[in-house]
């Protein structure tokens, strides 16, 4: 599954593409950085409409997570992630936002 996901995450590149002809670690790193820069460059072309849609979704999911926590009581990020079908990392992002607003108490275990 990860093999199929990586090209999508890397803008269509696969490990062979990233390795380059030399195939050394430095070539791979340079190719990966190029892919990241390309992704960042394309993000700046997001229209205001797309940015607004993302912001609306972000606010909505944050509110839904807050309501879920209020209803469920004490929960962990894994349980919330499972309920909303989001990654644990995404849930932690929203939990930190809620904690920053003083709505919840949250401390990420590192």
**Cα end-to-end separation:** 27 Å
Q: What string gives the helices and strands in order?
A: HHHHHH
The shape is extended
Averaged pLDDT, please? 77
Number of domains: 2
Portion of residues in beta strands equals under 5%
The CATH class of the largest domain is Mainly Alpha
Which ranges are low-confidence, i.e. pLDDT below 50, for 5 or more consecutive residues? 5-21
Oligomer designation: single chain
CATH topology of the largest domain: Arc Repressor Mutant, subunit A
Task: Provide the gyration radius in Å.
Answer: 18 Å
Question: Sheet bearing the most strands, described?
Answer: none
In total, the number of strands is 0
- CATH architecture of the largest domain, by name, is Orthogonal Bundle
Structural commentary:
This protein is mainly α and 110 residues long. The protein has 2 domains: 2-43, no CATH class; 48-100, Orthogonal Bundle (Arc Repressor Mutant, subunit A). The protein is 71% helix and 0% strand. It is built from 6 helices and no strands. It has helices at 2-9, 15-19, 25-43, 48-72, 77-84, 88-100. Helix 4 crosses helix 6 and helix 5 (77-84) packs across helix 6 (88-100).
What does this entry show, briefly?
This protein is an all-alpha fold and 110 residues long.
List the helices and strands and how they pair.
Elements: H1 2-9, H2 15-19, H3 25-43, H4 48-72, H5 77-84, H6 88-100
What key phrases describe this protein's structure?
Arc Repressor Mutant, subunit A, mainly alpha, 110 residues, 6 helices, 2 domains, extended
